[in-house]
Structure formats: C-alpha cells, structure tokens
Design a protein that fits this description.
- This protein is mainly beta.
- The protein has one domain (4-530): 7 Propeller (Methylamine Dehydrogenase, Chain H), CATH 2.130.10.10.
- The protein is 6% helix and 38% strand.
- It has 5 helices and 33 strands.
- The protein has helices spanning 4-13, 33-36, 175-179, 237-242, 280-284, and strands at residues 53-56, 71-75, 81-86, 91-97, 107-113, 123-130, 159-164, 169-174, 187-189, 195-200, 205-210, 220-230, 245-251, 299-304, 310-315, 320-325, 330-336, 344-345, 348-351, 356-361, 367-373, 379-385, 390-395, 405-410, 421-427, 433-439, 446-452, 457-466, 469-474, 480-485, 494-499, 505-510, 519-520.
- The strands form 7 sheets. Strands 9-10-11-12-13-20-19 form a 7-stranded antiparallel beta sheet.
- A hairpin with a 5-residue loop joins strand 9 and strand 10 (195-200).
- The longest helix is centred in the first third of the chain and has 10 residues, at 4-13.
C-alpha cells in the first residue's frame, strides 16, 4: 500500500489529541518534514484560490466581550464531567462530575440540550459517556485498569440525563440503566424536542428515545444494529471493506421478560476502543482489536432532517448514511458519499422477526466521518476521509429521500493526502454559510473554514486555532460562532470565537478539562435546526 506510511502517522502524529496512542508514539519523529510545514499553521505546498482569506487565529488575544445571554454547555471528555458557562459574563453557572455518582471511568463524550424558555432558570441535557479500555488508548501512564476501575462500574456507555435547576446540576437518570441500551458516542435531540437519538460505533447500535420529564423514566422507541458482510470476508482486512459487500440493518427488540435490552456497558462491543478521528484505518489494517472487527460499519451517530420525519444513520467505515422514516421506523434509502460512487442506493427487506434489511455496495472507496443537514433541510453533507478528503453535498429538497441526489463536493487544494481533513460542520442561522473544523496532525494546531452554501466554495480560513478543533456552535441571534478545541486530555483547550456574518475573529474564551463538544442551549424548538440536532 503506497499510503501506509503516511496514514500510520495518525498513530504518532495523532491530531486527534490522542497524544501518542500507545501503539504509535514512535512514529511522531518519523513525520519529519511532512509535519513541520503545519507547525506555524501553514497550508502545505498547494496554492489557495485567490478569493480565500486566511486568518492566523493563533495571534489573537483572549476575548472578554459580552456575547449575549446564552448558556454554553461543554463536556470534558477524559475530565469526567460537563459544565455550563454564562456567555454574558464568562462565569461558570454550574458543573457536574460523574465520578461523584459512582462511575469509575466517566469519559464525558457528546451532549445535546433540550430547549428552555430561560436556560438561566433551568434546562435539561443528554450526555453520553464512554469508559472501559477507551481510557487506555491515549498513552496515559495510568494504573486505572490494574486497580480494577474499568470493571462493572467503569465500563462506561452511560447515557446521563442531567437537569440544571438554576443553581446546580442534578443527575436525573442513567438512560442506559433504565433501558439496557448503553451508547457512548453522539446524541441528538429531535427537531420537535420530543425525544433524542444516540449511537455507538463500537457496537454499531443506534437507538431512539422519548423525552422523559422530571422523575419519569426514558423509554426506547426503536433500536437498530448495523453489520457489514464483506464480499471477501475471508480475505485480508482491507479487502473486507474495499471490495464491497452489504450492510445488514436489523431491528433490535427488548427481552420480553425484562422489557430491557442487553447492551449496557461494553456488552455488544465489536472493537475494544473507539475509532478516534481517522482511526478507521486502524480497523482495516488490523490494528484495532475486538470481538468482531470485520463486521464493523462504524454506526456512531444519528442526525435529523429539520422537517422532523427523517433521520440519517451515519456509517463511518463505508461513508454513507441510511435514511430512516421515523413515522413508521422503516429505512428508506442509503446515501453513499464517496466521489465516484453512486449517490443513492436502494434498501431491500430480506426477513422479518426480527425485521432485517440489506444494502449492496459494489465497493468502498473511502471512509467517512461527520455529517449534517442545512437548517432549511435542502442539503445534506458528509465528510469523505483518508483516501478522499472532501465533503459530499446532496440536494435533499425533494419530499422523497429516494430522490435525494449527490450534486457536488466541497474541496480544497490543501486537503490532499491524509491531512488536513474536514472534521465537523455546522451552519449559520440563515444557512448561507457552513463552518467546518479542519484537522491537522499534532503538534500542529487545527483550524476552521467557512463555506459559501450557494457555491459550496471555501471563502475564509481560520488557521492555527488550537489542537483538535472539534464541534462548533452558533448563537441563535446570528452573531457568533464558537469553535471548541482540545477534545482530549493534556493539551491546551478553549473556544475560538468569530462573527457569523462578517467573519471577523473575536478571540478566545477559556475552557477547562479538554472539551470534546459544545452546545449553546436553545430557548425554543426552532433553534434546534442550528443545534445538536441536524449536524455533528
């Protein structure tokens, strides 16, 4: 493989904040000149379009400007908790640490907040957590495993429902314990705020839940598991995916005796560690062990069309999205994102009891990552990574998803090779701009770019922001964009802020504990179109 050497630098160069994964630390020194070109936020050897403006964000100072009456919610990843900040004063309103509730390895991962008329008086949010061996992949000299803290109480995959009551944060429910479904990755609120979805790429499981209030307990509305059946399943690891095959989507059912599923903690894990960004490569080269890596699809997220009917199951290993109709819980079609692949694939039901569907893929040209719908629902985008570095754009204006079409790609001349690569996305309130975090390999800082959604061209770049630029959030008055950075432990962390309309850099706000996600609490359901609902 001509790309093995450069791709393996993922392990040592670990942009990913996975500061030297234990099996790849030594490769950092091998990166040499390939990484040095990024140390000062440079863009490599390719020339940029003359219309693209570049800002060296690393030269900006911290901002203490009043940013509006919003509550900014951020999980701490390996810090084990989450805190809420008043953007009008820069003061932390409240925080929660899941260690205090008996979770001996709480990796506070992703979150989504329900709307509240006045978040200062109270709101609720859903917070997924990882645990288990995931704490071991970052090169920490920890003794947490040998001391037995990754056992029953440290397996992770909790789904915490948390309430801020105006003074403190209170743990209301562990949805995983209530339902038997433990999911440790993305959570997204429904567009009408009536429930939420969660997923986990280690298990290839996603589930849809109703909204519980107060002392009520959450109920599962539907759950699915995705499995990959490679056309050359008995061959090598990479061929298992690249030569094509089929996705098998199965409806999961709770046990009749208990009314619960059997997927708490690490139960159901196909791989031992999460796929950190670009770590799909570790799977198809046999470097990420587990009980069933060859069946992995990487189903680790669900995003919702703002119209409220359809949801997209994000499949990382195959760079595709299965569209599900939440009116009848039936899959409708599959959007296949790689350049050069057909854009809309049919789904066939192959059996009942349990209901099972299959999608045939002739080949898998690349892996994917994050995805999302525009606020008006007329566009869907997903990243193509590693072997392709671009973003597929689908026209989703038609009422029938089977007519959604791949129309173009967001590209940049510097997105060549493995890095830099598009990572997360969100939209301006009016949908005229898309903001994309761009991942660079450690020790370089990552950045963010702005895309004109009429032309799907990059019009501005903010470079040298900080390590591991992750998700973004927008203030619902259309004034500011927040780019979180440092999704992992031990690196500098904060929030870089710029204006939504004029794209002027404002500066930085501190964040503590290596934050991995960010959400501004909405005040009404309409604002969920620009929250952790439609995009990742």
């Amino acid at each position: 493989m001509s790309r093995i050497f450069s791709r393996r630098k993922i392990l040592g160069a670990a942009a990913l904040g996975a500061a030297g994964m234990v099996f790849g630390r030594k490769l950092l020194s091998e990166a040499g000149e390939g990484i040095s070109k990024w140390n000062a936020g440079g863009v490599g050897s390719n020339e940029l379009p003359a219309s693209t403006e570049i800002v060296n964000a690393g030269k900006l100072k911290q901002s203490f400007e009043e940013l509006g009456q919003y509550v900014y919610l951020t999980p701490q990843k390996l810090g084990g908790g989450t805190h809420a900040v008043d953007l009008n004063s820069g003061r932390t309103l409240a925080w929660i640490s899941y260690w205090n509730y008996g979770d001996s390895c709480p990796i506070s991962h992703h979150l989504a907040a329900y709307p509240s008329p006045d978040p200062y008086k109270g709101f609720e949010f859903i917070n997924s957590t990882q645990g288990g061996d995931n704490v071991m992949i970052y090169g920490l000299p920890t003794r947490i495993k040998e001391r037995g803290m990754l056992g029953k109480w440290g397996m992770g995959n909790h789904i915490y429902r948390v309430q801020f009551d105006g003074q403190s944060m209170n743990l209301m429910e562990d949805v995983a314990e209530t339902t038997g479904i433990g999911l440790g990755v993305h959570t997204t609120i429904y567009p009408d705020a009536s429930g939420f979805a969660g997923a986990d790429g280690q298990k290839d499981v996603c589930a849809f839940f109703n909204r519980a209030v107060g002392s009520e307990k959450t109920q599962v509305q539907m759950a699915f598991r995705a499995d990959w059946i490679g056309a050359t399943a008995n061959g090598g690891m990479e061929e298992n995916w690249s030569k094509g095959g089929k996705i098998r989507l199965t409806r999961l059912n709770a046990a009749k005796e208990t009314g619960k599923y059997d997927l708490e903690g690490t139960k159901g894990n196909k791989i031992d560690w999460e796929m950190v960004p670009m770590a799909e490569y570790l799977v198809y080269t046999g470097q990420l062990p587990g009980d069933s890596p060859k069946t992995l699809t990487g189903l680790d997220a669900v995003v919702h069309h703002p119209g409220g009917r359809y949801s997209a199951l994000i499949i990382r290993m195959l760079s595709c999205a299965i569209i599900v109709d939440r009116h009848n819980w039936e899959p409708v079609c599959c959007l296949h994102c790689p350049e050069g692949s057909p854009g809309n694939l049919p789904i066939a039901k192959v059996s009942s009891g349990p209901d099972t569907w299959e999608i045939k893929l002739d080949d898998v040209k690349c892996v994917g990552h994050e995805a999302g719908f525009s606020p008006d629902g007329k566009s869907f985008l997903m990243m193509n990574n590693i072997k392709q570095n671009n973003m597929a754009v689908f026209d989703t204006a038609d009422a029938d998803p089977r007519n959604w079409k791949k129309i173009t790609f967001v590209k940049d001349p510097t997105w060549s090779g493995d890095y830099p690569s598009p990572f997360h996305l969100c939209f301006s309130v009016d949908g005229s701009k898309m903001f994309v975090s761009v991942l660079y390999p450690k020790p370089a800082n990552s950045g963010c770019c702005v895309v004109d959604t009429k032309t799907w061209k990059i019009i501005k770049k903010f470079q040298n922001i900080g390590p591991d630029c992750q998700t973004m959030a927008v203030t619902y008055d259309g004034k500011y964009v927040f780019q979180i950075f440092s999704g992992f432990q031990r690196l500098s962390s904060g929030a870089f802020i710029f204006t939504q309309d004029t794209l002027e850099p404002i500066g930085y706000l501190p964040n503590f504990g290596g934050h991995h996600d960010c959400v501004i609490v909405p005040t009404k359901a309409e604002q969920l179109k620009n929250s952790r609902c439609t995009t990742l």
